[in-house]
Amino acid sequence: MPPILQHLVEMTGHRDHLRLEASVLATLLQLGQSMEVRALEFFFAETQVMVRPRSWSHRGEVISSECDASVDPARGALASMPELAACIRDRFTSALRSSSGSHTLWLPVWINDKAHACLEITQHKAFSRRQRDVIMGVFQVYQNYQNLLDYSERDALTGLLNRKTFEEQFVRSAAQHQADFGSSEPSSGLQQWLAVIDIDHFKQVNDVYGHLYGDEVLILVANLLRSSFRAHDRVFRFGGEEFVVLLRSTTLEHAAQAFERFRATVEEHMFPQIGGITVSVGFTSTNDGAPVEVLGRADQALYYAKANGRNQVRFFDELLQSGALQPKISHGEIELF
Ligand SMILES: Nc1nc2c(ncn2[C@@H]2O[C@H](COP(=O)(O)OP(=O)(O)OP(=O)(O)O)[C@@H](O)[C@H]2O)c(=O)[nH]1
After folding, report:
1. Which parts of the sequence belong to the GGDEF domain (predicted)?
2. Which residue, judged by its Cα, is nearest atom 30 of ligand 1?
């Protein structure tokens, strides 16, 4: 099989965005001599769009960053790369910068009208027409496949991550936290937090206004979730009117503030036709136990919030310490729902 086809076969065998990205870079590396390739990640921070290299080639090998984007020392403002910034702004499919001895081609990866990342290819000589055609072909296969992967990981109504992806994201998020803050954790108090969020009396919305309005509320709550939490936090729809948020590397105080701020944001929001709705939130640290146990603890805190007036944020460990909740452990076994 020709090497390029072999690379494409390998590339489309991945079920993980990062591995797929590293694989497309390895494929592109085969297409030219003394070529450098990078995958750039875009994210919003410090009131502007930032960019940082997430994977890159080094002596013919592809390396991926182990650092979280928000603390990556290699991050910089997108505005410092004017050709690429203009390409993203104008929604172009590619951008080129040529100076003597260095030619760079950028290929933004568009998913649902949003560029999350960009491939960058740099070489000494100018790109020939044929080389560009082959690069674009490989890139389009990659982009189609990324879109397909993304589609399978998202909830169709809200566009949030679906339940299927939760465990993997949970494990990845814990590993990232360990890599970023492992040794400083005890003194910094930085931890991961998980919240289960449920819309109060949502059945009434459906009953009074109909399912279409119910769906609209779910979409608007999902939008509020997206805008309330940071890019490296993860927001899921678990089905129905239940959402889960994985909050990355912060203190208990900041986690409690973030969830409370979200609760207040929903309470203040005016939903068309319906008016006001509220949410209840239960949260816990992700430090101990498997994902399902952590979920169970946050769920217990949520049910406590529901049973004690709704429209409030409850912290599992605090409820446990105060005796308001008992751990769900019987005969040395964990009760799973
Ligand atoms: N519109 C719409 N409704 C949904 C969807 N999925 C689940 N539901 C509805 O969500 C409602 C959930 O109601 P309940 O679990 O009884 O809870 P609730 O009325 O929110 O009450 P509390 O949670 O106790 O405050 C049910 O009426 C479901 O039919 C969906 O995708 N769209």
Report:
1. 190-318
2. 240
Q: Are 247 and 260 a contacting pair, CB within 8 Å?
A: no
Alpha-carbon torsion (141, 144, 150, 153), positive or negative: negative
pTM of the model: 0.80
Q: Is 198 in the pocket of ligand 1 (CB under 6 A)?
A: yes
Query: Which residue's structure tokens are 């890139």?
Result: 139
Q: 66 and 121, same structural domain? A: yes
The enclosing H or E element of 40 equals: strand 36-45
Which residue range forms the structural domain that includes residue 229? Answer: 161-334
DSSP 281-292: EEEEESSSS-HH
What are 88's two structure tokens? 């993203």
CATH number where 126 lies: 3.30.450.40
Q: Is 253 a catalytic residue?
A: no
